[in-house]
Amino acid sequence: MEMQDRTIVVTGGASGIGRATALLLAREGATVIIGDVDAKGGEAVAAEAAGAGLVVAFLPLDLSDRASVGGFADAVHRRVERIDGLVNGAGWDRIEPFLQNPPEMVDQVIAINLVGAVRLTRALLDPMVAAQQGKIVNISSDAGRVGSTGETVYAAAKGGLIAFTKSLARELARYRINVNCVCPGPTDTPLFQRQPERMREALTRVIPFRRIARPEEVAEAVMFFLGRRSDYITGQVLSVSGGLTMVG
């Protein structure tokens, strides 16, 4: 199994892409620690994994709260000496015109999608640096690559996560730590299902494959960046969008 004897932290692991990633990594032999603000969902994923003989643990994490990020990192360090991989997979958005965004919503979008990931990465990094090995995968969005109407602040935060990926990859290469980024297009997650049906149908029509991505398909790209096949790849951004955002 490709992830045998590896410990991976996955944020946003209670649902959607994070859940699919956690379960895929566990099926491939990893010990997975998921962090999420949704305690009920996180415990359910851990229980589902245990029922299948997989090792997935849940710890509460609110990326918009500095103390929660620190507490989560401390709890991870108490469980394991170091981690082999970190997946910054948590994300949140509310689609509406930028002119209608209230200040508190702007703060929350940036905190969850960018600042929280930066803080958590730093909090978990020292043992990886000491071991001179590890892999970090940031799950951004194609909104951060090409923009998205009604998601201006979200796109800004996700674009920041892409820039964070590239800069951190340059800094950590000397420690043999890979840092890469996966950018999903429209994906069948609980967040996507909350959008109006007409919007979901419109997006499906403009995707060359004429369908929305499954979370498991994005998870496969994440595992590629965590596995040995990507040992000589760092600072890269991979779109998983069914061809929606092809660029030259």
Can you walk me through this structure?
The chain is α/β, with parallel strands linked by helices. The chain has one domain (7-240): NAD(P)-binding Rossmann-like Domain (Rossmann fold, 3-Layer(aba) Sandwich). It contains 9 helices and 7 strands; from the N terminus they run βαβαβαβαβααβαααβ. It has helices spanning 16-27, 39-51, 66-79, 103-131, 143-146, 152-172, 190-193, 197-206, 215-226, and strands spanning 7-11, 31-36, 56-60, 85-88, 134-139, 177-184, 237-240. Helix 1 crosses helix 9 (215-226) and helix 3 (66-79) packs parallel to helix 4 (103-131). The relative contact order is 0.15.
Please describe the structure with a list of short key phrases separated by commas or semicolons:
Rossmann fold; seven-stranded parallel beta sheet; 48% helix; 248 residues; 9 helices; alpha/beta; single chain
Write the layout of secondary structure elements.
Blueprint: E1 7-11, H1 16-27, E2 31-36, H2 39-51, E3 56-60, H3 66-79, E4 85-88, H4 103-131, E5 134-139, H5 143-146, H6 152-172, E6 177-184, H7 190-193, H8 197-206, H9 215-226, E7 237-240
Parallel strand pairs: 1-2, 1-4, 2-3, 4-5, 5-6, 6-7
Helix pairs in contact: 1-9, 3-4, 4-6
